[in-house]
Amino acid sequence: MATAKDKKKRVLIIGSGIVGLCSANYLLRDGCDVTIVERDPLGDGTSCGNAGAIAAAEVAPYPLPGLWKSVPGWLMDPLGPLSLRLSYLPQFLPWLYLFLKSCNQTKAEASAKAMSSYLGSAFDDYKPLLGSAGLEGLLKKEGTIFVYKSDKGLALDNYFWDLTRRNGVTLQSLNQKEIHEREPALGPQAYAGVYTPDWGHFANPGDLVHGLARLFQENRGNHLQGEVESFEIKDNKPVSVRTRDGQRIEFDQLIIAAGAWSARLSAKLGDKFPLDTERGYNTTLPNPDAELNNMVVFAEDKFVATPMNIGLRVGGAVEFAGIEAEPNYARCDTLLQLAKGYLPTLNGEGGTRWMGRRPSTPDSLPVISPSRHHDNVHYAFGHGHLGITGGAVTGRTIANMIAGRPGTFDPKPFHINRFD
């Protein structure tokens, strides 16, 4: 007869993006009984359509000292990297206030140190998952180039690069000739650059997510389709969820990894958090006529181009408009217009346009944390631009937390209570 000690721990994960799937697969490796509940088909969320980067070099936070000076110009520029729908401004102001409060050197230094420790195992933590799923061939690790149009643009990022270098990232300055030797498709607008080897990308993030979903199901993970609406509380802790269509799902441990929708769920458990949604856009060009060897970051114009097995994906931009607002695909056209300035032969015809919702925190650090109130609840959300990058690190960390094992980095900067 099985004893309580022998009984498998029942873990329910809300969300099947990259963070939820990595958490689920690491928990299965620990012998847990894992169920994912997701309103959409398994693995069809934001993670499928993004730029695919493992940006282990991205240790510097977005709120840097003096950044606020650039915001008005970005908002007024029709080709700028930032847009805000005025109707959303009243809802956006509390998040913006906390973001601006984080734009100081003391917080930037602390955030970079925390992110450096967190991302130190970004590649290693994917290895067992990719190996088990037969996905090793998807990962390309040749580094990336940050391209600048001018010395002035490069100089404006001096503090960013100094902070990055001081937190253990290898960097190499490139002149125009060296840039074109690495990426011949780039035109003369690519004037100066910075190369880092601490960067990789997946040849197709959709293949990654769907492959991890298959691995989860092959290892007897359970998937239920439904939208979680409420929690049942007994003895001061949640014991089940109720979905909109009436399903009741019991659990011993709960993980909320629902991306941009996570804060709505955490608030129902008493854990309020200032999460907002950076809507990002991209276009995947099947016949780009401009071949890149590696992912390229166009630093002054704030967008990227990623070579994939389905074409060239050109994406970026930040739009604050809330979760429900309809996409503004003119942002995709703007990005292609900018890309043609750097890639003279680029063929922008026949592209597939896409919009995704990045769950973003005011200080750029994700939430990887137990609940304030319930010892059987953990949170894994708010990864912003670094969902793919940190997916496996967060997944392994959540599994460690539930098993009571020590982690590889200090979890305190990532706690859900840090804005209390």
What does this 3D model show about the protein?
- 49% of the residues are buried.
- Strands 4, 6, 7, 8, 15, 16, 17, 18 and 19 form a nine-stranded mixed beta sheet that branches. A six-stranded mixed beta sheet has the order 10-2-1-14-21-20, sandwiched between helices. A three-stranded antiparallel beta sheet has the order 3-9-5.
- It has helices at 18-29, 71-76, 89-101, 105-119, 127-133, 151-156, 158-166, 176-182, 205-218, 262-268, 330-342, 387-403, and strands spanning 10-14, 33-38, 53-54, 82-84, 139-140, 144-148, 172-174, 192-196, 200-202, 222-225, 228-234, 237-243, 248-250, 253-256, 276-285, 296-298, 303-308, 311-320, 352-360, 367-370, 377-381.
- It is globular, with a radius of gyration of 21 Å.
- The chain contains twelve helices and 21 strands.
- β17 (303-308) and β18 (311-320) form a beta hairpin.
- By secondary structure, it is of the alpha/beta class.
- The chain has a single domain (10-414), classed as FAD/NAD(P)-binding domain, CATH 3.50.50.
- This is FAD-binding oxidoreductase.
- Keywords: Oxidoreductase.
